[in-house]
Every structure is written in C-alpha cells, then in structure tokens.
Specification:
single chain; mainly alpha; Cytochrome Bc1 Complex, Chain D, domain 2; 6 helices
Length: 150
C-alpha cells in the first residue's frame, strides 16, 4: 500500500499542492487584511484618541531616560524594578502618587526597594511622565499584569 502511494504522488502533484496552498493562503491573507481595514475604524475605542502633547512628551522622557532598562512595562522590558503598566491603579488613580514614586530615594523607608537613579526632573517633566504612565495604564491589556503589584 505504501509503495502504491509513493508511486502515485508525483512532482506534478506536489507542485499543484504547493501552488494551490499558496493561492489559498494569499486569498486568506488579503481577506483578513481587508476585513481589518474595514472593521478597525468602526471600533469605538479608536475614535477620538488624540494624544495630548504632555503624554507624548512623557513618552519621549520615558525613552530618553531608558526607563525600560530597569522597569517592565506591560510585560516588556527589564524585571529589575517594578512593573509600571498599572502604576496609576497601584497608586489609587493618583498622579501625585506616581510623582512621589519617581522622586523617592532608597532611604525613604520603602523596604526591599532597589535604588532608582535620581533624574531631578522639573515639575513639568514629572507631570508629563506621570501623564504618560496614567495614559498607558488605561490601555486594555486583557488583564495584564495579572496582579496589582505587577
């Protein structure tokens, strides 16, 4: 039986299967891409999502100071320091709590706290970074991180 099947499967059959599969998956990809381009603008959560300048500036500060080099952010980055994707909720939806966290020093009485560099941000930069973290914490992450602590 195996010998019979091996003799009936020719190079022409293999080529036809290859071309047929290629056409099938190309059509599937085009259909999914078209469907996404039609449905995505209709989704309510993407309407009116203009990012404030302060939030954008906070993202620039985040990148320029390499915060992700120590902190994880929505599951991405280093795990040396606390997860910051949900810091706004962790500090009871309080921007001042985030600013105190950024300003804090290792000798502030927080037990088992690793040393955070002191960037000496101005009040405007602190506000921008806190607004960025607040904005980011409102992203639907499908319940990630799994705990409030990150």
């Amino acid at each position: 039986m195996v010998i019979f099947m091996m003799q009936s499967f020719t190079k022409e059959n293999a080529r036809n299967i290859f071309y047929g599969g290629t056409v099938f998956f190309l059509l599937l990809f085009l259909n999914l891409a078209f469907n996404t381009s039609v449905l995505l603008p209709k989704q309510e959560r993407y309407e009116n999502t203009k990012i404030k300048q302060q939030v954008a500036f906070g993202k620039v500060l985040w990148d320029n100071n390499n915060c992700i080099g120590c902190h994880s952010f929505l599951g991405d980055g280093a795990y040396f320091a606390p997860e910051l994707g949900n810091i706004y909720q962790r500090y009871n939806n309080n921007i001042d709590g985030i600013k105190r966290f950024i300003r804090s020093r290792p000798d502030d009485g927080i037990i088992l706290r690793r040393s955070m560099p002191q960037f000496n941000f101005t009040e405007g930069k602190l506000d921008a970074l806190a607004e960025f973290l607040k904005y980011s914490s409102q992203v639907d992450t499908n319940k990630w991180p799994p705990t409030k602590e990150g």
